[in-house]
């Protein structure tokens, strides 16, 4: 897909042919992307779901093992399913629209307590936290 980056960070213990083969298993062929690196060696890697549930565990384990072997401290991979713990883009957009409505259309028409309650109900602060 054209939205994928030109270059990928790939653990040295993961063969290019394996990576190419695994790419067909990910939804939209979206391979794990190294998005951010902390000075202590921790990395944030974004990964799409794997199409075939039966293959998911094997592919996921192979990639995680390669990342662990490539880590300077051999730290284990910590995985978090962001679909379950973060709002989706539609929820963020709805919260933003509620915040905008609150700030632009009805700025401080109510008591401070009611306004703060309305602000909390937008969930915007929760999402950006």
Automatic annotation (TrEMBL):
GO terms for cellular component: cytoplasm; membrane. InterPro entries: Myotubularin, Myotubularin-like_Pase_dom, Prot-tyrosine_phosphatase-like. Belongs to the protein-tyrosine phosphatase family. Non-receptor class myotubularin subfamily. GO terms for biological process: phosphatidylinositol dephosphorylation. Substrate binds at residues 88-89. Residues 1-129 form the Myotubularin phosphatase domain. This is MTMRA protein. It comes from Melospiza melodia (Song sparrow).
């Amino acid at each position: 897909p054209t939205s994928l980056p030109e270059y990928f960070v790939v653990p040295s213990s993961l063969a290019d042919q394996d990576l190419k083969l695994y790419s067909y298993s990910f939804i939209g062929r979206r391979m794990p992307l190294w998005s951010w690196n902390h000075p202590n060696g921790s990395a944030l890697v974004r990964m799409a779901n794997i199409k075939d549930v039966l293959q998911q565990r094997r592919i996921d384990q192979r990639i995680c093992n390669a990342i662990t072997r490539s880590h300077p401290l051999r730290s284990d991979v910590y995985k978090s399913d962001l679909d379950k713990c973060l709002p989706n883009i539609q929820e963020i957009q709805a919260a933003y629209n509620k915040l905008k409505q609150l700030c632009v259309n009805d700025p401080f028409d109510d008591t401070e307590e009611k306004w703060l309650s309305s602000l909390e109900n937008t969930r915007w602060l929760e999402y950006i936290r």
